[in-house]
Design a protein that fits this description.
Belongs to the glyoxalase I family. By secondary structure, the chain is an alpha+beta fold.
Length: 171
């Protein structure tokens, strides 16, 4: 590995918090950001239609005929259940993911968009959406929840403060 054996952790203190007892800085994180996430789905066609039409993700084809949904600097790679690519999760199952996506669009505008898509018969665009105040990785967020065609829980959130610019934004 990269490090020598760590110092013993004081009794009763979780190993992840040992730095506090030692009066040192927390260990640096090796992870910078998420590159991609694999969604195992019942139907790649239904999933592509949902995420491209409802959330505007770009459909990408790679390595022959594999599909991905690209957004920002990330993507969802798609595996069809029973036809997954190796390596894969130990038990890949459609509908087992709960994730949060960030938007700059006011959530009320997104809710209206979801309702229009539902009226156009896009499957499972939205059932009952409420805007909720929560805490994201970088501070206060407001969120809406809905389900995709595989019943994954999709949370779309907007930061209450423009974290990058340091200015106030609308929730």
């Amino acid at each position: 590995w990269l490090y020598a054996d760590p110092a013993p952790v004081p009794a009763g203190l979780p190993e992840s918090m040992a730095w506090k007892e030692e009066g040192t800085s927390p260990p640096s994180c090796f992870i910078q950001r998420l590159d991609h996430l694999v969604l195992t789905v019942k139907s790649i066609e239904d999933t592509v239609a949902f995420y491209s039409k409802v959330l505007g993700m770009e459909v990408v084809t790679f390595k022959g005929n594999r599909k991905a949904l690209h957004f920002g600097q990330q993507k969802f790679n798609l595996h069809e259940a029973g036809q997954e690519f190796e390596p894969k999760a130990r038990r890949p199952v459609p509908g087992s993911v709960d994730f949060c996506l960030i938007t700059a669009v006011p959530l009320e505008q997104l809710v209206e968009h979801l309702q229009v898509r539902q009226a156009q018969s896009v499957p499972r665009a939205v059932d009952d959406v409420t805007i909720k105040p929560l805490t994201g990785a970088m501070g206060p967020i407001t969120s809406i929840y809905f389900r995709d065609p595989d019943e994954n829980l999709v949370e779309v959130s907007r930061y209450c403060t423009d974290v990058a610019a340091g200015t106030e934004g609308e929730p």
